[in-house]
Amino acid sequence: MTETILGFGAKSTTDDVLEGVDLTGKRVLVTGVSAGLGVETARALTAHGADVVGAARDLGKAKQATEAAGVAQRGGSLELVELDLADLASVRRCADALVADGRPFDLVIANAGVMATPFGRTKDGFETQFGTNHLGHFVFVNRIASLLKPGGRLVNLSSAGHRFSDVDLEDPGFEHTTYDPFVAYGRSKTANVLFAVEFDRRHKDRGVRAAAVHPGGIQTELGRYMTPELIQGLMDNINATQAASGAPAFEWKTIPQGAATSVWAGVVAPADAVGGRYCEDCHVSHVVEGEAMVREGVRAYALDLDHAKALWAKSEEMVGERF
What we know:
By secondary structure, the chain is an alpha/beta fold. The protein contains twelve helices and eight strands.
């Protein structure tokens, strides 16, 4: 229904979604502005007048990437801040500086992440993907939550990869489970959805809403740990599932198409339509079960309210901080 009303879909770009939208005076925070979707998201928002605070682990790389992409060359502004999501000391330092600064945000887009990494741990001892993709953002967003204005939004970048696996609240660090890069990725991406669901529940009474988005399949630095053979194998599995259901073959998205759903959910879609929901291809997704390689849809476990509350409590326990 939302897709029909607003007329956007899988091939829509950031420029399509934001056509005619004036973001002058709006302040937006985007994590992961050193490559790919983060850079394009910042470019599109500043081109329409927004003042963007871009967070990145490597400020030199972020400066080079955003300048090359023409971020803030017309319209709004860009300010870069240092944020290493795999180091909670860095996360808290960045969040505390933003809170001390005191300027509010209309939108926070939790875009940064890692995918299918070899087994490793963050500086705080968490499994790399869960620690970076979920816990880093969990602490960061909650620490700056007071800066989100009434009417503001949080957009968490999740993935269709959430369909690979639910979160494991008994063994989030693979202490007793054999590590699999895609299972770990799936857990972290499910956590991104559940975090949005619970954040939305906690903040909607003050007019702040949260949504999770799947940008689509895009060839960015996110896939740096995947071999061409592994990527081709995934594509073959997806296309076999597509063919069996009579659906068209998988197509890669361009980066502007991939970033479109983030800005759609953040500034264009009705807040009540996307709040507490999972979105892809510029529309709200339906619940699916069965084959993990289906083209569209969200798992019921990723939207479960009790599950979201349990993950929140477990996350607070893991990071040693209550919100």
